[in-house]
Amino acid sequence: MINRRNFLKTLTGTTIALPSILNANENLKKDIKFDEIADVIIVGSGVSAHICAAYLVKNKLDVLMIEKMDRIGGNSVLSQQDFAVLNSDLQIKAGIKDSEELFLNDLNKAGAGYNHLEHSLRIIRNSNEAYEFAKSCGVKYANKLKFLGGHSVARSVETIGGGGACIKALHEFFLANKGRFKNETKSDEIIQDENAKVIGISVRENYRFDRNLANDDRQNLSGVKKNYKARLAVVFATGGFSRDVEFRSIVNPRLRLAKSPSSLGQTAGALKQMLKIGAIATQLALSRFSFGIPTEDLIYGIMLDKNAKRFLNEDGDRQGLSNKILAHMQNLNTTSYPTIILDSTGFANSHDPNRMQSFIIAGKMKKFDTLDELANHFKLNKDELLKSMQIYEDGIKKNKDEFKKDLSKIKNSSMSKAPFYAMTAAPGLSYTPGGVWADTNMRVLHISNYEPIKGLYAIGEATGGVHGQARLTSCSIPDCMTSGIACAKDILKGI
Amino acid sequence: MRKLLMILMFSIFALANEFLIKPHHVDVKLKCSDCHKQANEKDYKALDSNACLSCHGSKEKLAKRLDFLKGKNPHNSIHDNANLNCYTCHNEHKPSFNMCNTCHNTKTWMKEIK
Ligand SMILES: Cc1cc2nc3c(=O)[nH]c(=O)nc-3n(C[C@H](O)[C@H](O)[C@H](O)COP(=O)(O)OP(=O)(O)OC[C@H]3O[C@@H](n4cnc5c(N)ncnc54)[C@H](O)[C@@H]3O)c2cc1C
Fold first, then answer.
1. Fewer CB within 10 Å: C terminus or N terminus of chain A?
2. What are the tens digits of pLDDT across the range A416-459?
3. What are phi and psi of A326, to 5 degrees?
4. From the candidates B44, B59, B80, which should be mutated to test the interface with A, based on the most A CB atoms within 10 A?
5. What residues have CB less than 8 Å from A176, skipping those under 6 apart?
6. Which residues does residue A8 pair with via DSSP β-bridges, in sequence order?
7. DSSP codes joined into one string, A342-362
8. Do strands A420-424 and A339-342 pair parallel, antiparallel, or not at all (unpaired)?
9. A365 CA to middle of ligand 1, Å?
């Protein structure tokens, strides 16, 4: 039980325990007592952690994987895990002509020059090896390819059962090969020896993440402190920071307003641990959004802000639209998301009406017989709503849209035929492209000399600079898997 | 500062009344010591899942009872299988938390959780 004195003590404890950032020397401890030892310690339990771990245990290393959450698998178990692969068995069987150049072209186009070429090539060249390795560990893929947006050919394989099934298979493989796992164990600090080589981590066991804290990393004091030693390497497979509102608002104020479908534990704590010992932070301001509805269907309707006014051309990709929405909300100084409205002609034009129906069943999209109901539900001013709809309709008649929408593409959709369909347009931050900078062997480089920090690796979403401005869809999984294998191979090479 | 102190004091007093027991557990006459095995109240700790399962049976059994929800079975979901701890969603001394609800609208398939 907490009495008053203890309670106040814990509170003051929080303030004095704040780490002094970039003071690496304090981590150079000599006579430290270790409670656990393993060849390799992997922090995180997502797909990058599991692929790396599977590769290492298959090669007979003693691997300890830790996860701060109760839940195994971070964002990886929420993910569909669509997976872009160059020259997979499925591409060959279907006779699809793909090439390094084509794939690279697609990645560069999405990355807009912010993506580092060597990492793009790492993904492309090793994607098939990673896919075959995942299969050999028991991950199952559907017998057909997906042709996804931004890709110039069909090249994405579909994970049967999505991320949940993938992590389940890999976890079973890992344990069956003598891998060791502890959840509710949080890495707090990286431990280095006198030569600045990473030799372990300081953790808290029996840690319980507290979603009610504004910043779990700083404020949560639960758990029992222990030190773990790694004979060969520590691997940070700690994912992104899309749920860390405090941190993402610092790196890009616009991101404060975004929602996030990510796992509750996606915070910047692990990133800060790496930065504290000299890792390089790169591209932290970038973002990748998901959207509640296929964005290609928005062209058939209108989007209205909280004043029931249109403010953009609804024809756009989710990245562009999300940025415009958040910028507009910033301008209006509001936290209310806009509303998407389709009338029944627009709804019927959507490219997958069955899927749209499923949104209604799930309660994500709502159907209204009258505009009164719609205006009430979304707290829109009815007169302004009617006015905006009228202006839009007039534009269609004159073939001239206020926001330069190409009306030849709207397949005669209108804004006057009941029933109406509407939903909130909330950009969801599902992926943070920024992170620490690593070489193609996934060794984390030091900010003072760009040399590898000995004994420290980072893989998967925890790294930055890989995808650039907008990550091409289905390309995180090949990144996570190829980086996991590259890291494992580099560790094995050093033995 | 004064205001902060007031808030602090308030939360300390609030603690004493916080350990209410849920109605369905009151019904079966559960006492604090039925779950918290420490001799002294001061040493009471948050429980792990095994404490719940000592009455409720195995995770597999609990999952089976919600099998009719198919892929949407919170005790055996497509994301987590049966890996979660009970306390990820269920709380005894404060309102429970529906984690599925952080991404999905669960109203159409799930009752409010106790
Ligand atoms: C809904 C959704 C759908 C997606 N769909 C796709 C898709 O179809 N295709 C695609 O390519 N990508 C997709 N993505 C993106 C992709 O799934 C993720 O980028 C990827 O799974 C990240 O894997 P990871 O191993 O790097 O990190 P994660 O899976 O996020 O794992 C990181 C883990 O590290 C843990 N951790 C963090 N800090 C600590 C610490 N200090 N101590 C201990 N543990 C810690 C976290 O709790 C977490 O469990 C999707 C993402 C989402 C959210």
1. C
2. 999 999 999 999 999 999 999 999 999 999 999 999 999 999 99
3. -65, -40
4. B80
5. none
6. none
7. E-HHHHHHSS-HHHHHHHHHT
8. antiparallel
9. 27
Q: pLDDT tens-digit profile of A187-235?
A: 999 999 999 999 999 999 999 999 999 999 999 999 999 999 999 999 9
- Encode B31-69: b = buried (16+ Cβ within 10 Å), e = exposed: eeeebbeeeeeeeeeebebebbeeeeeebeebbeeeeee
* pTM across the whole model: 0.90
B94 touches chain A (CB under 8 A): no
Nearest by CB to A7, which of B12, B46, B107? B12
The CA distance from A435 to A448, in Å, is: 17
Give the type of residue at A31.
D
In the sheet that holds A366-368, the strands lie side by side as: A302-304, A339-342, A420-424, A366-368
Q: How many CB pairs under 8 A join A and B?
A: 52
Residue where the block lists tokens 């952690």: A49
CA distances from A240 to A15, A185, A247 (A): 26, 18, 11
Residues A342, A301 contacting (CB under 8 angstroms): yes
User: How far is it, in rounded angstroms, from Cα A281 to Cα A433?
Assistant: 11
Instruction: Count the helix, strand and coil residues of chain B and give each as a percent rounded to the nearest 5.
Output: 50, 0, 45
* ipTM over 0.95 threshold: no
List the one residue out of A74, A66, A68 whose CA is nearest residue A181: A66
Q: Which two tokens mark A48?
A: 């990058």
H-type helices in A61-161, by residue range?
89-93, 100-111, 117-136
How far are the Cα atoms of A101, A133, A322, A410, A411 from residue A351, in angstroms, in the given order? 30, 35, 21, 12, 11
